[in-house]
Design goal:
The chain is mainly alpha-helical and 488 residues long. The protein has 19 helices and two strands. A two-stranded antiparallel ribbon has the order 1-2.
Length: 488
C-alpha cells in the first residue's frame, strides 16, 4: 500500500464492538480532562491546606498545565512507535498513580508530583482521538472524533461544579480519591476492552528531542503563566522566556536533522497542518476567555454595581451548561464534517465562538445572560475541536497520526496559556476601587476580555478559510485502497 502526505491511508481493522471501544476512549479522555479544573474551587484555600505561600500554592495548577504540554506530543509519538493501546493503558495508570499520590498527602512537593503526573495523563486524549479514527466504522468516524475532541472542553466545564460541590461538602482529599477511582476504572476498561491494533511503526524514540522540547516548553510556559506575578520585565520572566525560545530553536534545528524526529517538522510546516495548528492556537485562546472572565463576573460582589454575587458552586452550575453544549454538539459536528468537510467546519466553529463573545460584551447583567453567551461560544468550540484533529489526520501519514494530533492539542494548550496571561494583564490594568486599599477589575476590563476573545476567534475563522481544499473523495479513495490491501 502506498500512502503519502496528501492522502494518508487509514486501515480499519475489524472491531466487534466499536461503540463500546469509542465509549471507553471518550470516558478516559473526559476523566483526563477533568484534571484541568479539579483544584480550581479550592485554589484560594490551597496555601492554608498545604501550609505554604500563595505563590507556591499556585504551582498546583501550573504543574498540571506543564505536564500536559510536554506529554501530548511525546505520548503521541510513543503511540505511533509502540502502538496506541499500550500507551493508553500506561497513560491511565499514570493518572491513577498521580491521583493516589495527591489523595494521601498534604505536603506541597508530593502534591506537585501528583499534579504533574495528572497532567502527563492528558496525553491519553490525542492518542484516543487517533485510535478512534482507526477502529470506528466509516459512518461513525466523525462522531467518534467529535465526541472525544469535545471532552477537552467538557471535562473542564463539568469538573468545575462537581469539584466545587465536593470541596464544600467533604475534605479536599476526596477530590483526588474520586479521580483515583475513575483512573482505576479507565485502566481496567482500557486493558480489557480496547482492541489490539497492528498500528506499530518501528522507529527509535528521539530522547534528546523529547528532553529539548520539555525544557523549552516548560521555560516558556512558566514565564507566560508567572509573568503577571513576577512582573513582565523581571529578570526571571525575561530569562526564562528568552532561554526557552533559544532551546526551542535549537530543538527545531536538531529535529530537522534527526532520522526519527519526535515531531516531523517538515510535515508540521506544510500549509494545511501549519494553518490548522495556528487556528488551534487562536481557538484555544478564545476558549480561555470565558473560563477566566465568566466565573469572576459571576462571583463579584453585588456592591461593585456589576457583580452577580454567586458562590463558587453557583458559578460552576451556571458554567456547566456550556460543557453540556459541547457534548450536545457532537452529532452536529459530525454532520458538518460529513457534509462540509473539516475546513468549513473549523471556520464556522471559530465564527460561532466569536459571536458568543460578542454577546458576552453586552449580556452581563444576569447569570442567565452569561450562561447564554458561554453556551453559544461553547457550541463553536465543540465544532472547532472536532474539525481540527480531522484536518490534521487528513494531511499527515498514518504513521504519525497520534503525534500530529498531540502537537495540535499542544497548540490549543499554548493558546489557553497565552490567553490566561493576556486576560490577567487586562484585568489588572483596568481596575476600580471597591474599598480603601481594595482594587478589583472594572466592568470595562471584563468586556475588553470578551472583545479580545472575539477577535482571536474571528482570526481563527479567517485562518481556517485559508487552509487548502482537499480534492473531493480523496479520503474515501485512500480508505478503500487500504481496505482492499487488508482484504488481500
Amino acid at each position: 500500500m502506498h500512502t503519502d502526505h496528501d492522502a494518508p491511508g487509514v486501515v480499519r481493522p475489524p472491531v466487534t464492538r466499536p461503540g463500546l471501544v469509542i465509549a471507553v476512549l471518550a470516558f478516559g479522555s473526559l476523566c483526563a480532562a477533568l484534571m484541568q479544573s479539579l483544584v480550581i474551587p479550592i485554589q484560594g484555600e490551597l496555601p492554608a491546606l498545604l501550609s505554604t505561600s500563595a505563590a507556591n500554592a499556585s504551582w498546583v495548577v501550573t504543574a498540571t498545565l506543564l505536564g500536559a504540554a510536554v506529554a501530548m506530543p511525546v505520548t503521541g509519538r510513543l503511540a505511533d512507535i509502540h502502538g496506541k493501546k499500550p500507551v493508553l493503558v500506561t497513560s491511565a495508570a499514570v493518572l491513577l498513580v498521580g491521583s493516589l499520590v495527591c489523595a494521601v498527602s498534604s505536603a506541597l512537593p508530593v502534591v506537585l508530583v501528583g499534579r504533574v503526573l495528572q497532567g502527563v495523563a492528558m496525553g491519553f486524549i490525542p492518542v484516543a482521538i487517533s485510535l478512534a479514527r482507526e477502529v470506528a466504522p466509516r459512518h461513525l468516524v466523525n462522531t467518534a472524533v467529535a465526541g472525544i475532541s469535545a471532552t477537552l472542553g467538557v471535562g473542564g466545564a463539568l469538573g468545575l461544579p462537581l469539584a466545587a460541590w465536593v470541596a464544600q461538602s467533604f475534605d479536599w482529599h476526596v477530590l483526588f480519591w474520586i479521580s483515583t477511582v475513575l483512573a482505576a476504572l479507565i485502566v481496567v476498561a482500557a486493558a480489557t476492552l480496547l482492541p489490539r491494533v497492528a498500528d506499530k511503526h518501528p522507529a527509535r524514540l528521539d530522547v534528546v528531542g523529547a528532553i529539548g522540547l520539555a525544557v523549552g516548553l516548560v521555560a516558556v510556559l512558566v514565564a507566560v503563566t508567572k509573568g503577571s506575578t513576577w512582573g513582565w520585565s523581571a529578570a526571571s520572566t525575561l530569562g526564562l522566556l528568552a532561554g526557552g525560545v533559544v532551546v526551542l530553536l535549537a530543538w527545531g534545528w536538531f529535529e530537522l536533522r534527526h532520522d526519527h524526529p519526535l515531531v516531523d517538522l517538515r510535515a508540521t510546516v506544510r500549509r494545511p497542518v501549519l494553518l490548522t495548528n495556528i487556528a488551534a492556537l487562536l481557538v484555544g485562546f478564545g476558549m480561555m476567555a470565558q473560563s477566566i472572565v465568566v466565573p469572576q463576573l459571576l462571583q463579584m460582589p453585588a456592591e461593585t454595581g456589576f457583580g452577580l454575587d454567586q458562590t463558587i458552586l453557583q458559578a460552576g452550575l451556571w458554567m456547566a451548561p456550556a460543557g453540556v453544549m459541547m457534548l450536545l454538539m457532537t452529532p452536529v459536528s459530525s454532520r458538518l464534517l460529513s457534509t462540509l468537510g473539516g475546513r468549513p467546519a473549523l471556520a464556522l466553529g471559530a465564527a460561532v465562538v466569536a459571536v458568543g463573545y460578542v454577546l458576552g460584551i453586552f449580556l452581563t447583567a444576569a447569570p442567565w445572560q452569561l450562561m447564554l453567551a458561554t453556551c453559544v461560544a461553547s457550541a463553536g468550540v465543540g465544532i472547532g475541536y472536532a474539525a481540527m484533529p480531522t484536518l490534521i489526520m487528513q494531511n499527515i501519514p498514518a504513521s504519525e497520526a497520534a503525534s500530529g494530533v498531540g502537537v495540535n492539542a499542544l497548540m490549543r494548550s499554548m493558546g489557553t496559556t497565552v490567553a490566561g496571561a493576556v486576560m490577567a494583564m487586562v484585568l489588572t490594568s483596568r481596575t476600580t476601587v471597591l474599598a480603601p486599599g481594595v482594587e478589583i477589575p472594572s466592568h470595562d476590563a471584563f468586556r475588553l476580555c470578551f472583545a479580545i476573545g472575539a477577535l482571536a476567534a474571528f482570526a481563527a475563522a479567517v485562518v481556517a478559510l485559508t487552509i487548502p481544499r482537499r480534492p473531493p473523495g480523496e479520503d474515501s479513495a485512500a480508505e478503500d485502497t487500504a481496505r482492499e490491501v487488508v482484504a488481500a
